[in-house]
Amino acid sequence: MSLLKLRDYQGEAVEAVERDWRDGIRRPALAMATGSGKTATASHLISRRDVQTLFLVHRDELGAASVDDLDPVLARLAEGLAQARPASELAELDTITEREARPRLKRATDALFGLRLASTMALNRADPDRRTGTASGLSLLWLYDSGQFLADVDLGFVVSNLEEGRDRDHAVTLGMGIYVPFTKTDLTPYAGGGLAYSWANVGGGGANGLVARAGGGILVGRLSRVVVRLDASWFYSLFTERERVSGKEVNVTGVIASIALTGAAK
C-alpha cells in the first residue's frame, strides 16, 4: 500500500517518535492539531515497525465557543479519556464551557432567590401533655454559591396542624447558614449549620430568641440557572419557653425537612 508523502513537520514528528523509541521511551505522546495530518503521520509510524498494530481513535468531542473554553475543554477531554467516560458528563463549576452555558441556561450570577417549603417536627414542645408536634410553612430564600462554600438567608413562617381544641404552634424565623459543598458537579451534597432568630409559640406561653441549626442536603442542577435544594437539619432553641401550667422552662428541639426551588435573578 502506498503512503501519502509527508510534509516536513510530519516527517519531523515521525523522526521524533522513533528517536524516543530508540531511547527506551515506550509510549511517546504526539500532539497535533486538527487537520495537521495525524492519520498520515500515524500510518508512516506503523509502516516502519514490523509488528502487528492496533490503531485506536478517541472520538469524544466537546465544543469550544471561544479561546476561554480551551483549558476546560482540554481538561475534561483528558479526564474523560482517563475515566473512559464522555467529557460531556464531567462538567463542574470550574470547567463548564461557554458553549454549554447557553443551552443549559447557566446562571450569570452566584446569587439565587427562591421559595422553600418546610416541615418541622418538635420533639420537646412546651406542653407536657403533648411533647411532639409537626408544623409546615413557607419561606423566602436567598442562596449564595461561591464554588467553595454556600451561604443562605431565609425569612419564613410555620404553622402546626394540631387538632381543634389546641392552640396551633407557630413561628416566624429569620436565619442564615454557611455550608461546605463536597463536589462541584451538577448534583452536590453539602453540610453545615447556622443561626436563626425566632418568634415562636410551641405549646407554651411563647418566646423568642436564637435557634441553632445543623444539617445537610443536596443541590440538584447546581450548574444551571434553576437549582433545587433538598435539606434536612436539626434545631435547638437557645432560649426557653415556659409551660403554661407548671411554669417549667423548656428548650424546644426538633428536626426540619425542606425542599426549595431557586433561580438566578438574571
Q: How many helical stretches?
A: 4
Beta percentage is: 35-45%
SSE sequence, one letter per element:
HHHHEEEEEEEEEE
Label the CATH architecture of the largest domain. Answer: Beta Barrel
Q: Whole-number radius of gyration?
A: 30 Å
Unreliable runs: none
- What is the top-level CATH class of the largest domain? Mainly Beta
Number of strands: 10
How many domains would you count in the coordinates? 3
What is the CATH topology classification name of the largest domain?
Porin
Mean pLDDT: 84
Based on helices, strands and strand pairing, what is the structural class?
A: alpha+beta
Structure characterization notes:
The protein is an alpha+beta fold and 266 residues long. It folds into three domains: 1-57, no CATH class; 66-104, no CATH class; 111-264, Porin. Helices cover 17% and strands 39% of the residues. The protein contains four helices and ten strands. Strands 1-2-3-4-5-6-7-10 form an eight-stranded antiparallel beta barrel. The mean pLDDT is 84.
Features:
8-stranded antiparallel barrel, two-stranded antiparallel ribbon, 4 helices, 3 domains, Porin, alpha+beta, 266 residues
Fold blueprint:
Elements: H1 8-22, H2 38-47, H3 70-83, H4 98-104, E1 111-122, E2 133-145, E3 150-160, E4 170-181, E5 187-201, E6 207-220, E7 226-237, E8 241-242, E9 249-250, E10 253-264
Antiparallel strand pairs: 1-2, 1-10, 2-3, 3-4, 4-5, 5-6, 6-7, 7-10, 8-9
Brief overview, please?
Helix 1 (8-22) packs across helix 2. With 266 residues, the chain is an alpha+beta fold. It contains 4 helices and 10 strands.
